[in-house]
Specification:
- It is a single chain.
- By secondary structure, the protein is of the alpha+beta class.
- The protein folds into three domains: about 150 residues, Sandwich (Immunoglobulin-like); about 140 residues, Sandwich (Immunoglobulin-like), CATH 2.60.40; about 230 residues, Immunoglobulin-like, CATH 2.60.40.
- About 15% of the residues lie in helices and about 30% in strands.
- The protein is globular.
- The structure holds copper (II) ion.
Amino acid sequence: MSYSFNKSRRRFFAQSGAGLMAWAATPAWLRAMENMGEMPTMPPRKASANFHPDVELDLICKPSSVAILPGQPTRVQQYFAKLVKGPAQTLTEIPGSYLGPVLRFEKGQKIRINLHNQLNEPSITHWHGLHVPAEVDGHPLYTIDSGQVFVYEFEMLNRASMNIYHPHPHNTTAKQVYHGLAGAILVNDDEERRLELPGGEYEVPIVIQDRKFDANNQLQYVHAMHDRMMGFYGDRILVNGRPDFQLDVASRAYRFRVLNGSTARIYKLAWDDKSPVTVIGTDGGLLEAPVNKPYVMLAPGERLDIWADFSGRKVGSQLVLRSRSFSGVLPGMMGGGQGEHGRMGGGMGMHGSALPVGSDYPIFTVKVTRQVSDSPKLPNSLAQIHHYGLSDTVNPGKPVPIAISEGPMRMVLNGRPYAYNDILPSERIPLNTVQLMEIFHAHGGGHGANGAAEHGGKESAGVKHNSGMQAESGGHRMGGMGMMSGMRHDDDNKQGEGGHRRMGMMGMRHGGDSDDAGGHQMGGMGGMGGGMGMMMSMAHPIHLHGQYFQILSRTIATNSGEDYATVKDGFIEGGWKDTVLVMPGERVKIIKPFQDFKGLFMYHCHNLEHEDMGMMRDFLVV
Ligand SMILES: [Cu+2]
């Protein structure tokens, strides 16, 4: 793969240069939405005559209502399922919940799912975490209209793991998930079965979500642009669709299959009695061995397999799983002219939620109600994982960039808003390759060391990528914000010294780093202009469709220390992942295989409000 970002930048300007003035006249976010509106859709997929399913089910999504709070029922959107063929244990309802039934599959099964869209709007369902062909991955290109049926057919290639099904139509994913459309997929295999982990009633799905209700018990959702920029946060925690969730347990070991199904909220999970959280698995299934953590971070789209042992606890005793306090995942509000950067805490930030992100609050309560004498023992070793190294990748010195671009009214990846047919050279992935990828903040807004690394050329492989990305996204931003704020011409030395202090206050700067078209390089974080406060870097859970990946390294900017210290012990390394939380100032290198299937596989922020703003792109596997 040899290509130059200079070339692609010119291509970008060639495509959109004429439109810059028009762009400038429209708020950037509105503009991004318009771009996304150009998406065509494919005719609904039909059943294939030569596919012989072991399991077949009808999955229906439709408006419904559920009693959640005392009083009036809440209008929701909900998945229902009917088993057409296969083992009865394939479907498990969660009583009284708006969540879809838990789907339980076996590795190697051939599965047909007939999705019936009975919503009053278009939708399509994505199998988050599953390794399936592109045409049945639930890409928004395959969105179906109300009344239509889409037939998914695939073989379960995944190892034992917990995955998610949820809608993925373009622009409305967050809204549909928020209104109830989500469910868990459990995959089992022989390797897992040999461990005889707690099963049946002792294996409990724990789907954590936050919601906001109005006085009539109806769900309230985002209206202000600000809710999209930061993500939408409810003021009420629901577990498995229930408020004030309490789980009655026997005094023995349980397996909690935990899933963050919130649209934006990040949790720092810990037991209230300070006993460690014992993690046996992550997004992509079991770890090699259990890991004890003081707390675990869980971002939207991530899963945790937790061993919770209540043996030895007395009947009547209680344990509360809490989200503990942390900071740094959200930008704060700044007074005009102050220019203090970086750590503004991840507390309330700019949103006035009664349940601030990063504050300390309960998730659910476990109550021991039965004494039993025996309990399974935690295995010392769990599963085999082949660990990828750089030498397994085709691009050890040149990671595929996933650049997080944060700007006023605008959250994108690799500098460009989502368009199904806009594939960068770096986004074309040869089939059956293992790729090194690097996720980083292209506009470090406030986290200077990150910016310094990008500008200073400390990583020879990364420099080209970064400067190219910045140039591209800078081009957008110039158009988007040029009318709203003053421009700043700064050279990089100043930026490195503390120019980032001002970056947010000013709309943009003209960087002088690296290459030619200097006048268009504006790597800085745009702001709203003096006096109004600013947007800074925030945390993003980045999700890649297709196969699971492994985390190779996390590197944090040196001046992010105080905030980062509040979360750093909560990341699980060494397992398979499909979503990774990237903190402000952080660079994460991952290794991901692209095997078996060609076609479009999305990568996006799993802050679903961000996704719907266009913080989403495709890899085209060729
Ligand atoms: Cu995001």
